[in-house]
Design brief:
Layout: H1 2-26, E1 33-38, E2 48-53, E3 62-70, E4 73-75, E5 78-80, E6 83-85, E7 88-90, E8 93-102, E9 120-122
Length: about 120
């Protein structure tokens, strides 16, 4: 009985570690630096803005990707006073994706300068 229980616990631990390892490696982005913030603007409620930069080129420029997206969430069907019921889950959705070349002189005013490789900023 104890041996069977120990095998079940051991299997559950291995499955959990394997799942966490797979999730961690699936989102790894080598050679980029990224920043995620709440999207600026009144009408962007719930949206995020993620900016990722490539390593610098020899001339000092780099490639930047900018993505406006909404994280996965749950949409209720009906709400009454303080509680909601029913509803359905909604996955991540991308509203806008752009990729463009940048130099220190052409960084937009509301964006950060170059994000070094390996940096991850979440605000």
């Amino acid at each position: 009985m104890r041996r069977g229980l120990a095998l079940i616990v051991y299997g559950a631990i291995l499955a959990g570690v394997g799942t966490l390892w797979a999730a961690g490696t699936a989102k790894a982005s080598p050679n980029v630096g990224c920043e995620t913030i709440a999207a600026p603007g009144l009408l962007a409620w719930g949206q995020k803005r993620t900016i990722c930069d490539s390593p610098r080129n020899a001339d000092g420029s780099w490639w930047r990707t900018r993505q406006y997206w909404t994280p996965a969430h749950y949409v209720p069907v009906s709400c009454y006073r303080w509680s909601c019921s029913g509803g359905y889950p909604v996955g991540d959705s991308v509203a806008r994706y752009e990729e463009y070349a940048v130099t220190d002189a052409t960084v937009l005013p509301d964006e950060p300068g170059w994000l070094p490789t390996g940096s991850v900023v979440i605000r």
